[in-house]
Amino acid sequence: MNGQRHAFPARQFDALVSLFNGGGSVWIFCLMVILCADVLARWLFNAPINGVPLLVELSILMIVFMQLPAAIRSNRLTRSDILLSRLLRDRPSVGLSLSAAYDALGVGLMIIVFHYTLPIFAKVWRRNTFEGLEGDFALPGWPFKLLILIGSAMCAVQFGRSLLRSLRQLAKLRDEKALEAARLVRLGALLLAAAAALFVLARATDISAAGVGVISIFLVLLFVYAGTHVGVALALISFVCLWVVRDDPVIAGKLLALSVGESMQEYEFGVIPLFVFMGLLVSVSGIGTDTYDVANHLFRKVRGGLGTATVGANAVFAAVTGTSIASASVFTRVAVPEMLRLGYRPRFSVGVVAGSSVLGMLIPPSLLLIIFGILAEQSIGDLFIAGIIPGLVLTLAYFVLIWIMAHRFPNKVATPAALSAERESLMSVRALIAKSAPIVLLIALVLGGIYGGVFTATEAGGMGALGALCLTFFKRKLNRRNLWEALSETGHVTASISFLLVSAHIYSRMIALTGIPNLMEAWVESSGLGLAGLLAIYIVAIILMGTILDAGSIMLITVPLAIPVLAPFGVDFIWFGIVTIIAVEIGLLTPPLGLACFVIHNNLADDRIRIEDVFWGAVPFAITMFVVLMLVVFIPDLATVLV
């Protein structure tokens, strides 16, 4: 009976979370329709719809806070599991204790956001403040502030539920006499000692603001590596450091609340849900399989042609998905079984997919390019255009690599029979055109529209999503279930990415207020390193961080630090964005984290292939990527000639 009483409010809360999640999913579809209607009205009748930019800005705020609780419930927030997963497996008591502590930090962050947003809501309500331009197009501001309050409260509850689950599991371990009490006591003592040392350092010593900023960088790296949710770590550490620097928690809390309420209200943020939605629809439509069939036909007479076909198909597929994870998931299921069946070596098969999947982060549209554009305040459309030539160069470099391997190291590629056999293909010209036309049309629509100046990157996302929706419908792959799943997944991805960006925004504010950019600039001047030395340190740091962190975390930590330091050198940040993305891509293939490699291994479900095989297979492609990175560094025109 008692269990039923507890289950009832839990079910009611889950229903509320699902309701908000559904509302956010529907609004993503509405956002696509509004943007497409605006583009068509402007193009056909020269009469754009009034207020669309404001609707887009406010829509992102709505989507994030309506779907962030569901993203937390589904464990979709970005975190590094390299340490935590190992502890949960080998030392469950320690792992569960840390997991509970991280969820407690999440509860604390959301309570802080709620507490300092409440006065802002009350002020907007009293003054009846409007968003937009009165007399043109304006909306009352209080519903959106109320949504932040409700969303943050629901997120706090969701983190709290996860915390209670961990505590219940710890209680179960205690009942089973499996709780490592001594180890937990030592862990607690260590954490308390570290917290006390930091408190004494802040209070008893005359530490400078810049010193606080330097400590914050190490704390962010430590917390992220230890498994704290990246957004929670960035936001909370920023809040505490601002508190220490200004010696006032109220100022720190107000800055945090303003970042949450205002940093997402950017028109450029609209590209995130729209391109994610487009990529998911492309995956549903089966265009990835069709692209592979076409590439397989075109390269059937080339030695090692299946590997070349996989790279070519991945490059084309990347031009409409925007994420390496989608490419890795699709081609692991499509290409690897076919290559293994025809006699290709397991390491080569998975290495080709791992290496070519990262093209999705360079060839536009790319989620990492979008994140960089927002962090560095650069044109996302220009970044998309800048990624075209480096993406093609990397694709051609992979072609050359496979050709060399097939001729110089054939035993590493496939059996002699597989390499000497000329594969048959019964695909007719008509079938070739039918299978290639959808993806060609979608690429032409998205990149042609941006490059031709027909619409912005955000509008390209809306048109691309509509185009992908139509293609999925005409291919008879669209139904209510997979459409809803695509919309819901889009909301989860958008919420998790936007939460990271909000946290990065307050982190960059904190870094600026502590004077770290000025300190680093003075250090650069005194060291005489120059641009080349700084760039070398930056690239090495990113690649090394790739051994323990995911791509998004690396960018959120490094880009806010690098931008103000490199600005005095007159760096072209469009070119710098491409350099950053390629360096981050190398990290995706680098052990022990190597996110793309783990995605491939998890999707493969083949006992013959270990995770070590995926990493070793990706080594030649990571080296090739580094060569292309050096080409872009020394020949900047590769990235900027089209912009």
Low-confidence stretches: none
Describe the strand arrangement of the main beta sheet, using strand numbers: 1-2
Coarse morphology: globular
Q: Based on DSSP secondary structure assignment, what is the total number of beta strands?
A: 2
Query: Largest beta sheet, briefly?
Result: 2 strands, antiparallel
CA-atom Rg in angstroms: 25 Å
**N/C terminus separation:** 67 Å
Q: In percent terms, what proportion of residues is strand?
A: under 5%
For the residues shown, what is the average pLDDT? 83
Tally of separate helices = 29
Describe the structure.
- The protein is mainly alpha-helical.
- It folds into 2 domains: 9-205, no CATH class; 268-640, no CATH class.
- It has 29 helices and 2 strands.
- The protein has helices spanning 2-45, 52-73, 84-90, 92-127, 142-175, 181-204, 209-226, 230-246, 249-262, 271-285, 287-298, 305-321, 324-341, 346-357, 367-376, 380-386, 388-408, 410-413, 416-420, 429-451, 457-474, 480-514, 516-527, 530-545, 551-566, 573-588, 595-604, 611-634, 637-640, and strands spanning 130-133, 137-140.
- It has a two-stranded antiparallel sheet with strand order 1-2.
- It is globular.
- The protein starts with a helix and ends with a helix.
- The relative contact order is 0.11.
